Amino acid sequence: MITKKKFFIFDFDGVMCDSTGCAYQAHNLIAKKYGLNMIFSSDDFLNIIDNHNLSKNILDEDIMNYYDDFNAIYEKKLSKIKIFKNAKKFLLSKKNIVIITSNYEKIVRQILIDNEIDNDVIVIGKETGTNKSNRFKGLRRGFIR
Predict the structure, then answer these.
(1) How far is the C-alpha of 52 from the C-alpha of 103, rounded, in Å?
(2) Cβ–Cβ < 8 Å for 99, 135
(3) 7 with 98: CB under 8 angstroms?
(4) DSSP label at 128?
(5) Lowest mean pLDDT: which of 6-10, 61-65, 116-120?
(6) Is pLDDT at 143 greater than 60 in this prediction?
(7) Cβ(85)–Cβ(106) below 8 Å
(8) Long-range contacts formed by 70-78: CB under 8 A, 24+ apart
């Protein structure tokens, strides 16, 4: 007989923590280098990422360099990102937790470790190459992990 495991599935940003402040700070440190406007709110930053406007504002060959520069700065700020108090309590008290994120798995894992959460949380990040909806569907079908 096959038994099904039950999982608690969450998004990361906005549910477990808010890392957007660090992200738009990282963007602002390199914006001038790439001829981009400064961002003054998390909503401004999300509009650039969610609507893929970055590719409309810089040359295709600069996009990878932008992300390399951005990630180098962003990763230095990870230790400042705090998991929300109740989210931390939940993460420490439960098993079978899956986080599906638009972030890279290694970044989310580092935030978890910096917040003293080093249990068996499954993190499915953007390195899978699919959007969050498809990652969730893949998890349901058993294709991911």
Answers:
(1) 15
(2) no
(3) yes
(4) G
(5) 6-10
(6) no
(7) no
(8) 70/23, 70/26, 70/27, 70/30, 71/104, 73/25, 73/26, 73/29, 73/30, 74/22, 74/23, 74/26, 74/107, 75/107, 75/110, 77/22, 77/25, 77/26, 78/19, 78/22, 78/107, 78/110, 78/111, 78/114
**What does the pLDDT look like over 33-56, one tens digit per residue?**
998 888 888 677 767 766 567 777
Residue type, 79: S
> Whole-model pTM?
0.76
Q: Report whether 45 contacts 23 (CB < 8 A).
A: yes
Bridge partners (DSSP) of residue 10 are 99
Residue 94 to residue 17: CA distance in whole angstroms: 17
With residue 37 as reference, give the H or E element that holds it.
Answer: none
- pLDDT tens by residue, 80-94: 899 999 999 999 988
Both structure tokens of 4: 């099904």
Which residue, among 114, 120, 126, 83, has the nearest Cα to 98 in the 3D structure?
Answer: 120
- On the question of pLDDT at 67 being above 80, the answer is yes
Is 103:49 a contact under the CB 8 Å cutoff?
no
Give the burial class of 6: count Cβ atoms within 10 A of its Cβ; 0-12 exposed, 13-18 middle, 19 or more buried.
Answer: exposed
Q: Is residue 125 within 8 Å of 98, Cβ to Cβ?
A: no
